[in-house]
Amino acid sequence: MAITDSAADDTLDELLRNKARIIELPDDNNEDEVTGVPFPGNHLRKNGIHHLPQWLQQTTIGLFHDDYNTVSSEALDKTAAECLPHLTGQDNQGIPLNRHGLPHLQRKQHASFLHTPLKGLPAPYAAMDASRPWLFYWCTAGLSFLREDVSMYRERLMETVRPLQNKIGGFGGGHGQLSHCACTYATLLALATVGGLDVIDREAMWHWLGTVKQADGGFRMAIGAEEDIRGAYCAMTAITLLNLPLELPPDSPTREAGLTHFTDRLGEWISTCQSYEGGISSAPNHEVHGAYAFCALACLCILGPPHITIPKYLDVDRLIRCLTTLQTNPEGGFAGRTNKLVDACYSHWVGGCWALLEAAVVGPHEAKQNGSVSSAESRLWNREALVRYLLTCCQQPGPKGGMRDKPSARPDGYHTCYSLSGLSAAQNQYTYNTTASTTDRETGRLLSAFNWKGERASEGDMKGLSVERNDVVELVHPVFVIRFEAVEEARRKFARGGFPVVEGTD
Ligand code: FPP
Ligand code: ZN
């Protein structure tokens, strides 16, 4: 039907004259009609308890609901339905509430959950043999994010990973397994967390990394394995934390293609991973995923200052637009990709992108006075919503603790570690010092990743996020995802670069 001018005039006229047409949506009737999801928050308003934030008001939730049902939309509705009772405070699962009405962070329980696997695992965990370094990292780093002492694991971890280190350099997942970038990254970060970096053969690592560097600038995950953005981030993390020479080893096959440094063509290769959607894929022309955005951004923050390398190699506006669509409504956490479900681990993989992007966007303009790029005023994402999702939906109630993907999932080390790191990203402020040196003159080490500063949530921040001091997680380094102290120790330990001369050799 064509809408004539007069029909449009009538409608407007009618609206203006007939006040009865402008109706307020009822608060407690026909809830299911608005969203297709039962809305459980009304008891709060009736009882005058804590105020629900705007994005959890019944009328807001219904605004963008898609009526066309698909497998995906049904899964999305089911997830919203399982989360809403927790988000709105109808079901706190018996977790004690803080003074703002959100469940407290169950520090003791989560710490105990993360200590358990480090003491030994039951037989079914044999299936995770190839992921042992990851278990070490998630548990030790997660504990450190809770300010737990992990130094008692130093000797044991060093002895456990010694046989996972291959003679050709790098670490495999289990005994006799090929060196792999992901296992090497996880082992390195776990060792840095407990202060056990001495076990690493840095020179062999340098040689091995030279064999996974590719002529197009990227890195393979292992010799003969896939080339992807995780490899680039993991390799550059090892090179920088361990202060390995940036020059490619003489035996690196990539030298034949004319490359001389690990950084050669790397930024350009990362550019090719940005897709038409604006997001980042594992490799050119693959599907975009939030986790790969973190790898790309963190890798660029190792290459140089965020306000220089990120806009140089990525279309920042389009990346921001893509990542903002991953913060889900009504849950407030992040999904990994378009039209998929919220999952607590993306609190880090996507939540961790914002500090890096904020520093890229703000640049040195606002840093003139104190030399720092501030993210405090940035509203690129909803920190409050992420904190609410993690505290209300992702904490496993009961004495065993642990954090989980979503309420219907079981807790595990991976989700506990990355939920805590995501909480830290949302609660604290991370700034980049634009006036600090970016390269070490003596050794050539890339220093940009060491120029970050963390500031604990202020009283105002905590009030805005509805948390108390004890609900706030420690500062987590935005590029290396371990405690700042562990990063600083690695920086100092290898400041002189080079390789130790082994007696009896030339
Ligand atoms: C899909 O899983 C997940 C991916 C395609 C990417 C996962 C990548 C990471 C977590 C980054 C790893 C980084 C390093 C440094 C090794 P899914 O289909 O189960 O999940 P989804 O439905 O949430 O996308
Ligand atoms: Zn997950």
From TrEMBL:
Single GO cellular component term: protein farnesyltransferase complex
Enzyme class, spelled out: transferase
Gene3D superfamilies (UniProt xref): 1.50.10.20
Keyword ATP-binding: no
Entry GO MF terms: protein farnesyltransferase activity; zinc ion binding
Domain Prenyltransferase alpha-alpha toroid stretches: 105-480
Catalytic activity: L-cysteinyl-[protein] + (2E,6E)-farnesyl diphosphate = S-(2E,6E)-farnesyl-L-cysteinyl-[protein] + diphosphate
Enzyme Commission number(s) from the entry: 2.5.1.58
A Pfam family annotated for this UniProt entry: Prenyltrans
Required co-factors: Zn(2+)
Protein family: Belongs to the protein prenyltransferase subunit beta family.
Biological role: Catalyzes the transfer of a farnesyl moiety from farnesyl diphosphate to a cysteine at the fourth position from the C-terminus of several proteins. The beta subunit is responsible for peptide-binding.
Protein name according to UniProt: Protein farnesyltransferase subunit beta
Organism encoding this protein: Recurvomyces mirabilis
Gene (UniProt): RAM1
